[in-house]
Amino acid sequence: MRLERLILYILSGIIAALLSWNFSQMILRIVRILSSGTLPFRPDFILLPVLAFFFAITMVATEIFLSNPTRYRNNFQTLRSYFIKTILWSFIAGIVAAFSTVILYEFTPLSATNIKRVAWCIVGLCTGICEGLSWRSRSIEGLTERGNQRIKNTIIFGSIAGFSAALIIEKLLTHNSLPQEYHEPFGFLTFGLILGTFLCFATSPTSQVALRAGEGLESINPQVIKEEILTGVIRDRPKLKPKGGFQFVIEPDNTGVNAKEPDVIEEGLSIQLPAGRIITIGGSTDDDIYLPKIPPQCAVIQVKIPYAEITCHHQSVVEIYPQPKKKSSDSKYNLWHNQVITFKNPDGEEFYRFVFYDRFLDPQ
Fold this sequence. Notes:
Layout: H1 3-34, H2 44-67, H3 72-107, H4 112-136, H5 145-174, H6 183-202, E1 209-213, H7 222-231, E2 239-240, E3 247-248, E4 270-273, E5 278-282, E6 289-290, E7 299-304, E8 307-312, E9 318-321, E10 332-335, E11 339-344, E12 351-357
Parallel strand pairs: 5-6
Antiparallel strand pairs: 1-4, 1-12, 2-6, 3-4, 5-7, 7-8, 8-10, 9-11, 11-12
């Protein structure tokens, strides 16, 4: 797991904590003014829904922008589409947590400390659910076994984070001379830090990586293929030589041309890159990924956990965007998530684009 990812999740948790604390205090102040200084209900009915909302929307936004770090405009559009859903989910969870505290206070002998632990556990669980559901609805593997496991991780880690934060805050405040009025904001801040850390580990990408076929690798139209077969003119298509872990992440539909040519690379398909194996890309039929009309063995990719390395044998043929920050004398570069790799023939008429993923459980 990259340090930058952990730092971003922690900062997101801290920002959510600060926003939720300030916003909830503003609402409580307004309600007290309107009700002549006395709240008509427990503060939990403001604090917990606000806390749940800011944590949920912040963590969902963090996951969306980490999944596609180079597509800012699309990310904002995606976030906008999940905004109302997240508000609804978080509001329900916050109200449930607030009612739970009332029930526990009135009908159980539990102490205020234990009730707070339960409430924060519910808020953490809610954040995990919101993040997991938003990811599932956008991921090609949302309904697979690995997708279900990822959602379970976010829910479990979110719950544990809420409970752990409550325990840690109790210990810290017991041996701390902070004035009473700072206890609550300090608790929110600690909760945000812990929740961000836990969800970073829960959603951390696996060491499995993939290349997703993009522009230049068109989708195959079965009708066009039929016409080519009838005329006897069949185009040379990009193909892959599957072996072991080197294969499509999700097999193409067994229809049309793919019923005869399951190794054809289409736009939108992701190719799994196994750790340790050297994958060659070029215009030779001996290359692992065959791209017609470009020089043979243009590049070599090798996954070296926790990163992947590309060696460009033909600098004029291979383009990487965003470009690596450091120029390499041996043409070797480390790849990162969502980097675009373009292969083109010398005259520029043919080109193929792939997007590098270091977490093909993420939305594609």
